[in-house]
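Re: that backbone. Tokens:
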């Protein structure tokens, strides 16, 4: 590298960290400005009385994305954490006494399918082989595009395949045309929730997530998900990145059409290029003057956001039986809850929810003999949030959870913290308190996502879950790489 540039990155989430690692390894002078006192963004930790809680992501999917990231810097995941495949991957509780423990082995899953619905085992193998094709095509090519222009997607092979494999119909239609048993349908539709959308609005190309789920598997880094953040920080700092915590950016100053100064409360940082890993809406609406914004409030208001969440971090002073590491409570009507998230935004009448118990796998996240629980209830973004509402839903979830597992443990709770819409807004400047960006519906995919390159400010870029490729830890890491490659390309071409 011959030209060394000053790059200022706003936010130390996965996307900001990833971009920083690539650009610093390319020889640039990289600073990350992070408003919070810990790196990691939505994947921070909260520690109390011997418990360590991952505050956001808990599912480690698509392990090859992490591996590829570390390999780029001459490392492997094993250099930083001990990765374990979970088996069973997760449990789904249904109505009544029904539940399925989803095994890691595909042959065993096929047996479960066959047992529930005759002939569905072979259909699952066929469904997964199509999902594998979609996954491989997306991951080897399309997911890596900056998605600036529609012409990037003018590929007759892919257009032909799209029609042949009905990629643009809904995931729901695809799944339900092949499987009838409601438990199997809900198992195959569940990954769409990771995409911040409902199966009827998620394009069928995302059945590639079923391949990620069932074939590639559910993993866990011992020590917790924040270990990924710690590993990325090591790589970033090892390459010379200067991570400045508790440095909230208050303004990006545009001088002669370029982002030249980044202001925090007490300092000004000079930049050759600025990459915003902070929430897109906040960056544009708060940090930029009106004339430099690509999207206005009307645009944002018309977007379908992913849900927000009501979360609880709970320490229990005894072991809680009948829970696995990941537990999905699908014992209420999915349609009603989805309606209350997306169409009539309101607190749910009978919520579906998720409980993670990482202490089932990892003794380091709770004191000996105790349990570390994380509860998540998806919630419409932008609605009222209050202590009273949080507590009301804590009681609803605890009652159902304790009944389902046949164990009372509410009195054994020794640590408890709630986290909801208002916290997402305060801690991350999250638009409407969304948890994971934009919903992955067709009209908000690829070129229809907010752009990575500002069309108005030459050296200003965006990365993270609100731009391409989308929400989730692996996509955010990829997003950081794509933006870094574009910035590098522009520097080499003397455009910055
Ligand atoms: C509850 C929850 C559960 C999830 N579960 C999973 C899961 O199981 N698996 C999975 O793969 N994904 C999951 N996700 C999604 C995943 O965590 C996110 O997609 C990913 O972490 C987003 O990374 P990011 O870098 O885009 O954004 P962020 O992590 O939000 O990073 C943005 C950073 O910018 C900082 N910032 C904002 N404004 C400013 C400013 N003005 N100045 C300085 N800094 C600023 C913020 O503090 C933050 O650190 C979950 C998310 C949540 C919230």
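Recovered sequence:
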């Amino acid at each position: 590298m011959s030209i060394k540039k000053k790059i200022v990155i706003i936010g130390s989430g996965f996307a900001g960290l990833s971009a920083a690692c690539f650009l610093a390894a390319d020889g640039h002078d990289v600073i990350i400005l992070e408003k919070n006192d810990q790196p990691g963004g939505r994947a921070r930790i909260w520690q109390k009385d011997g418990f360590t809680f991952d505050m956001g992501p808990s599912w480690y999917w698509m392990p090859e994305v992490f591996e590829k990231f570390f390999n780029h810097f001459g490392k492997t995941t094993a250099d930083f954490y001990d990765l374990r495949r979970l088996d069973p991957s997760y449990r789904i509780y249904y109505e009544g006494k029904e539940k399925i423990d989803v095994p890691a082995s595909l042959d065993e899953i096929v047996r479960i399918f066959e047992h529930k619905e005759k002939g569905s085992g072979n259909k699952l193998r066929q469904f997964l082989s199509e999902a594998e094709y979609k996954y491989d095509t997306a991951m080897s090519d399309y997911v890596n595009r900056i998605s600036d222009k529609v012409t990037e997607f003018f590929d007759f092979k892919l257009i032909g395949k799209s029609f042949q494999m009905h990629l643009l119909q809904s995931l729901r239609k695809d799944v339900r045309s092949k499987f009838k048993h409601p438990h199997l349908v809900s198992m195959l539709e569940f990954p769409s929730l990771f995409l911040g959308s409902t199966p009827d609005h998620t394009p069928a190309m995302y059945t590639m997530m079923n391949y990620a789920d069932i074939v590639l598997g559910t993993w866990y880094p011992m020590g917790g998900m924040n270990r990924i953040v710690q590993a990325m920080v090591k790589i970033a700092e090892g390459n010379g990145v200067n991570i400045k915590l508790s440095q909230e950016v208050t303004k990006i100053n545009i001088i002669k059409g370029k982002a030249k100064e980044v202001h925090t409360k007490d300092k000004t940082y000079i930049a050759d290029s600025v990459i915003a890993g902070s929430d897109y809406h906040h960056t544009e609406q708060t940090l930029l003057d009106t004339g430099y914004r690509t999207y206005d409030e009307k645009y944002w208001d018309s977007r379908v956001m992913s849900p927000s969440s009501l979360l609880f971090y709970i320490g229990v002073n005894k072991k809680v039986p009948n829970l696995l590491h990941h537990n999905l409570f699908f014992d209420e009507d999915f349609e009603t809850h989805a309606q209350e998230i997306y169409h009539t935004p309101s607190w749910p009448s009978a919520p579906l929810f998720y409980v993670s118990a990482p202490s089932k796998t990892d003794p380091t996240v709770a004191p000996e003999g105790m349990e570390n629980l994380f509860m998540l209830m998806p919630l419409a973004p932008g609605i009222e949030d209050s202590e009273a509402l949080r507590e009301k839903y804590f009681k609803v979830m605890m009652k159902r959870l304790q009944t389902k597992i046949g164990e009372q443990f509410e009195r054994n709770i020794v640590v408890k913290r709630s986290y909801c819409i208002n916290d997402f807004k305060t801690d991350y400047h999250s638009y409407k308190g969304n948890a994971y960006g934009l919903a992955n519906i067709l009209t908000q995919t690829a070129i229809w996502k907010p752009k990575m390159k500002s069309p108005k400010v030459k050296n200003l870029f965006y990365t993270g879950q609100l731009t391409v490729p989308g929400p989730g830890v692996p996509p955010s890491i990829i997003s950081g790489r794509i933006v870094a490659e574009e910035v590098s390309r522009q520097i080499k071409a003397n455009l910055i």
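The first strand starts at residue 6 and ends at 10. Residues 10-16, 33-36, 41-43, 56-59, 248-249, 277-279, 282, 309, 311, 376, 428-429, 435-436, 464-465, 471-473, 476 surround flavin-adenine dinucleotide (CB under 6 Å).
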